[in-house]
Structure formats: C-alpha cells, structure tokens
C-alpha cells in the first residue's frame, strides 16, 4: 500500500483514456467519417493520423477564451482537421462523432478496480467534457461514482486549476484529502504538480514522461491501483 498522509477521502479520476477507451472511440469515429469519402479504402495510418490530430485540436481549443462547451469544441475541431485534410465536414460527420463519443466502453480492468476501491473511498470523475456527453459513458463504466464534475459545471478545462477547485468545493474536501488518477500529462499531471496534489499516472500507451510533471506513482493500467491504495 502507498503510504498516504493524510489518507484520502476521495479518489478523483480523469475519465477519457484513463477509465474508458477514448483513443479507440475517436479512431472508430474517424474511420466512419473517412469511409464515407474513401468508400472503405481508408488505411489504418490515415485513420490514426487524423484521430491523433483531432484529439490534439480539441485540447488546443479547450485552452482558448472564451469558454465554450465540449460539444462545440469537438465540432469545431472536426471542421478544422477535415478542412486541413482537404475535406468539408457535414452534419452527418458531426453526428457520427458525437454519437460514438456519447457511449465509450471502459477498459476491461476498470469496473472491478473501481468496485474494490469503492469499499473504502468515495470516487469522483473530473473531466474535460459536458454533462450530457459523458452521461452514457459513466453508465457504461457500471461501478457507481459519487461525483461527476465536468468542465461545463466549472466553465473551465483542465489544466485550469478552476476545474479541480470547483470539484473540491462540490465534494467538500481539500486537495490534501484527495489523490488524482489520470492518463493525461498536460491535462492532469501538470495541474497536480502545480497544486501539490498526490497523483497516479496511468501510462497506457508508453509515453515519455515530462520531467516537469513527475507523478507519485506510475501504473500501466488500473489493475494495480487497489493493491496500491487499499490496506493488505
């Protein structure tokens, strides 16, 4: 067990990528969108490149002012990356993207890991999304969560401190009474470093770690988290 002082009251989680299969969902959406234009002849390389760029564009747009909801972020990001690829986005493209991202399956180990952790801790999601867009995905996870705090509620996207501070106010805790589990370095580890929040990095894809945002613990997935945080 990780030595925690004080013992957390709440474990907070990033959702997309950390708990659910975000990268696969974005690739499925992009493949469907490209398939309309390339008649099923799109390559895996084309799909991956456009999906990577779509995720990057969405993160970039989240950092712009003024705040706009995540549905609009996704739609404008899709318009941008399709335009750069030589295509025009259609309403069907927009609906394909949003419909796939409204229900994303959890990583296989996640429901059981969360169920074990819930025996001792309150569990929360802090996510760069809208309330409506994440509802189906939270249901897909299966394990009940005590709090789901979104960028829409705080009107701020990670790594803006405001989203975390809003979450702590909602949960009635201080940062020292939580530990955060996330996959994103810029969106999660950065703010944990800046605010002094205990952190667990879930490195699902073997990314190089930014030395400026070193977490307390690194795991490949959530399967080892109960052993780390629960007494033996």
Automatic annotation (TrEMBL):
GO terms for molecular function: hydrolase activity. The keyword DNA-binding does not apply. Keywords: Hydrolase. InterPro entries: HAD-like_sf (IPR036412), HAD-SF_hydro_IA (IPR006439), HAD_sf (IPR023214), S-2-haloacid_dehalogenase (IPR051540). SUPFAM superfamilies: HAD-like. The keyword Cell membrane does not apply. This is HAD hydrolase-like protein. The lineage of its organism: Bacteria, Pseudomonadati, Pseudomonadota, Alphaproteobacteria, Hyphomicrobiales.
